[in-house]
From TrEMBL:
GO molecular function terms attached to this record: ATP binding; phosphorelay sensor kinase activity
Record-linked Gene3D superfamilies: 1.10.287.130, 6.10.340.10, Histidine kinase-like ATPase, C-terminal domain
Residue ranges constituting the Histidine kinase domain according to the UniProt record: 241-457
PROSITE patterns for this protein: HAMP (PS50885), HIS_KIN (PS50109)
Source organism of this protein record: Aeribacillus pallidus
EC annotation from Swiss-Prot or TrEMBL: 2.7.13.3
CDD domains linked: HAMP, HATPase, HisKA
Pfam families: HAMP, HATPase_c, HisKA
SUPFAM superfamilies registered for this protein in UniProt: ATPase domain of HSP90 chaperone/DNA topoisomerase II/histidine kinase, HAMP domain-like, Homodimeric domain of signal transducing histidine kinase
Domain named HAMP: residues: 181-233
Entry protein name: histidine kinase
Record keywords, A-Z: ATP-binding, Cell membrane, Kinase, Membrane, Nucleotide-binding, Phosphoprotein, Transferase, Transmembrane, Transmembrane helix, Two-component regulatory system
Annotated TM spans: 161-183
Length: 465
């Protein structure tokens, strides 16, 4: 993560430094040009002021006065006649002035103009303002300013920009280092969390705040850790359940097979033990079949074929099949259904659902009690309820009864029968039909299993999962 922090900080620094460089360069050039233009404008304005004075009073005394004023200033002045002959000038400017006057253009506008603006190579900059009296050019006022003052101004600007630039780079580095650290700390924690997950440690707890992308990633990792922890627990319980379910019948099979192999055993006893072995083999076969069905459901390869089915007629056939079993236990099976309800179901798979639920109701109900099948329409859905007057389900166990291998009887007594997979398969099949199933129960009074199926027209093919 240090590499990521360094790379991220370096990337930010390069981009920010590039932006700052462009902005500083643009600001520097703009300021320099603005200040130089101000110097030219001030010099030209000073020349125009002298021109205005001379136009009002063009006398030798006035010319001398203007020249004397500039001799005490930072600027210099040269006054010529209309032919360019120098009449008056301030000290030390004459050699340079002659060269400028010689090269200057005679078509000079009344507002004046810049005649020497190369402040980087020449020692002076210069402007000229024409003196016009009675509509005729009487002469010219040339103003000169030493470029050393401009160079000093530029040097001061460079110094200020250099100091500000160094300070801004330092602050940029500090800010980027802080921000990159703030950004990468959650990533470092997430990396450490994923390393724990890869080692099988699912006790990951990330403190995430906000709703940005990093917070969402942290929440996703947190959710993943919880899901993996749950799956690990489920896997362990699943393997333990399979081991238990297979160990018991295998123990019976092995034990009774050893007894049945004894040559001195009576044939009647041998037949009894072989019958027990057969029953246990059937139990294992049913368990393996249920596991195989659940595996196909998990792999989304368990196809169902839906077809329009008159529900009442379908349930009537199920009622007829199950009625003898209820009669043998001295129990009543009641069937109530409207005659005009049609649903799209896989008849074989849905019969499996109903037989499983009715078998559970038969198994966990008392003699003389009643089990009922009720069907009704509720809005656009079909409700099927299987009710019994049996032992019921404790409230703490009710949310878990559709989990694989979950049994309300924690002792897993084999006298209760079943593999603990029946309701899990029921739930998968019902949901594959686009429906849902849930249970309500009062412990000691009975249980209701409620199936909801979508009504109306729908597709006729589906997959479990």
């Amino acid at each position: 993560m240090r590499k990521i922090s360094f790379k991220l900080g370096l990337l930010f620094f390069v981009f920010v430094l590039g932006i700052e460089t462009v902005l500083f360069a643009s600001l520097y050039v703009t300021l320099v040009n603005a200040r130089i233009n101000e110097e030219f404008e001030q010099l030209l304005a000073r020349g125009n002021n002298h021109r205005d004075v001379l136009e009002k009073s063009y006398h030798p005394s006035t010319l001398e006065h203007v020249t004397m004023m500039e001799s005490e200033a930072e600027t210099d002045v040269v006054i010529t006649n209309d032919k360019g002959k120098i009449l008056y000038f301030s000290d030390h400017i004459l050699p340079f002035a002659k060269r400028v006057i010689k090269k200057s253009n005679k078509n000079i506008p009344y507002g004046g103009m810049i005649v020497q603006k190369n402040w980087q190579r020449e020692s002076y900059i210069s402007t000229v303002s024409p003196i016009r009296i009675d509509g005729k050019i009487k002469g010219y006022v040339y103003m000169f300013q030493h470029t050393a003052s401009i160079q000093n101004m530029i040097d001061r600007l460079k110094h200020h920009f250099l100091v500000v630039g160094i300070l801004s780079v330092f602050l940029t580095i500090m800010t980027i280092a802080f921000l990159s650290r703030v950004i990468t700390i959650p990533l470092i924690r997430m990396k450490q969390a994923t390393e724990k997950l890869s080692k099988g440690d699912f006790s990951v707890r990330l403190q995430v705040k906000g709703e940005d992308e990093l917070a969402q990633l942290g929440k996703a990792i947190q959710t993943l850790a919880k899901d993996l922890e749950y799956l690990k627990k489920e896997r362990n319980e699943f393997l333990a359940s399979i081991s238990h379910e297979l160990r018991t019948p295998l123990t019976y099979v092995k034990g009774y097979a050893d007894i049945a192999r004894r040559p001195t055993l009576e044939e009647e006893e041998r037949a009894k033990y072989l019958s027990i072995i057969y029953e246990e083999a059937e139990h294992m076969q049913k368990l393996v079949k249920d596991l195989f069905e659940l595996a196909k459901m998990d792999q989304h390869s368990f196809q169902i074929e839906k077809e329009p089915t008159p529900l009442c007629l379908f349930l009537k056939k199920v009622y007829v099949k199950m009625y003898p079993a209820f009669q043998a236990k001295n129990m009543s099976l009641v069937y109530r259904c409207d005659e005009d309800i049609t649903v799209h179901i896989d008849r074989q798979r849905f019969e499996q659902v109903m037989m499983n639920l009715l078998d559970n109701a038969l198994k966990y109900s008392h003699q003389g009690s009643t089990v009922s099948i009720d069907v009704r329409m509720e809005k656009k859905n079909v409700m099927i309820m299987i009710s019994d007057e049996g032992i019921g389900i404790p409230e703490a166990d009710l949310p878990h009864i559709f989990e694989r291998f979950y049994r309300v009887d924690k002792s897993r007594s084999r006298t209760g029968g079943g593999t603990g997979l029946g309701l899990a398969i029921v739930k998968e099949i019902v949901e594959a039909h686009g429906g849902s199933i849930y249970a309500t129960s009062q412990f000691g009074k009975g249980t209701n299993m409620i199936i909801t199926l979508p009504g109306g027209d729908e597709g006729v093919h589906g997959f479990i999962g």
